[in-house]
């Protein structure tokens, strides 16, 4: 069914446990911000398409009022394992001023995507901005990005599954896996 998968790096049970802990921690931190500032508007910004599976699981461990405002960024168009540089597709939500923002992505690699989104979010003067990523690759980054919440640090291999794709495929694979071929 998934002929190009070489090996599983992080299985479903480990992902589920970590995402549950992250959701609870993030919700507790955001709730504290809400109480401290009296500002109760919280918006999560998942970066499409890779973050959809992660954010769907994460928010179900966040028992609080929140909104979702998606943004689409493409950096790996077509059959490639090399980032081509981040570009926003469409528009970022424009109502972020004064709100507590959590940017959510599947993976921090070169840092270009999250650096770009964080900069555009901060231009709107939100009350706070944090970043949550499921995975952080141990690589030299083109742009340094501080992520407040990291699920797993992983070695520099091209991974798929749990939202992450190769040429649009494997987002539905339920675990984080390494593909066969040059990166395996
Ligand atoms: P960055 O801009 O290089 O940090 O890359 C971030 C984006 O590239 C992520 O949102 C992913 O969609 C994609 N990406 C980076 N590394 C991988 C990978 O190993 N597998 C699949 N997608 C990746
Ligand atoms: Mg992505």
Key attributes of the depicted protein:
single chain; 184 residues; alpha/beta; Rossmann fold; 7-stranded mixed beta sheet; 3-stranded antiparallel beta sheet; 3 helices; binds inosinic acid; binds magnesium ion
**Could you say which overall geometry the principal axes of the C-alpha atoms support?**
globular
| Total number of beta strands | 10
Give the % helix. 10-25%
What is the rounded distance between the termini? 19 Å
Number of helices: 3
What's the pLDDT, averaged over the residues?
93
Structure class: alpha/beta
CATH architecture of the domain at 39-74 and 85-157: 3-Layer(aba) Sandwich
User: What does the radius of gyration come to?
Assistant: 16 Å
Bound molecule types: inosinic acid, magnesium ion
The oligomeric status of these chains comes to: single chain
**Percent range for β-strand residues:** 25-35%
Biggest beta-sheet profile: 7 strands, mixed
If you consult CATH, what is the topology of the domain at 39-74 and 85-157?
A: Rossmann fold
Order of secondary-structure elements: EHEHEEEEHEEEE
Low-confidence stretches: none
CATH uppermost class of the domain at 39-74 and 85-157:
Alpha Beta
């Amino acid at each position: 069914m998934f002929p190009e998968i070489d090996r599983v790096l992080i299985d479903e049970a480990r992902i589920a446990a970590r995402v549950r802990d992250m959701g609870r921690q993030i919700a507790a931190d955001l709730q504290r911000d809400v109480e401290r500032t009296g500002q109760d508007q919280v918006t999560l910004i998942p970066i499409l398409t890779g973050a959809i599976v992660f954010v769907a699981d994460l928010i179900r461990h966040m028992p609080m009022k929140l909104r979702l405002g998606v943004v689409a960024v493409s950096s790996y168009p077509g059959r490639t394992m090399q980032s081509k540089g981040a570009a926003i597709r469409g528009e970022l939500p424009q109502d972020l001023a004064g709100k507590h923002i959590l940017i959510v992505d599947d993976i921090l690699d070169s840092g270009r995507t999250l650096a770009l989104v964080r900069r555009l979010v901060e231009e709107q003067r939100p009350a706070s901005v944090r970043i949550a990523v499921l995975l952080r690759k141990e690589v030299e980054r083109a742009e340094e990005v501080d992520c407040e919440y990291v699920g797993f640090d992983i070695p520099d291999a091209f991974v798929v599954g749990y939202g992450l794709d190769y040429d649009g495929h494997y987002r539905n694979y339920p675990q984080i896996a390494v593909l066969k071929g040059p990166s395996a």
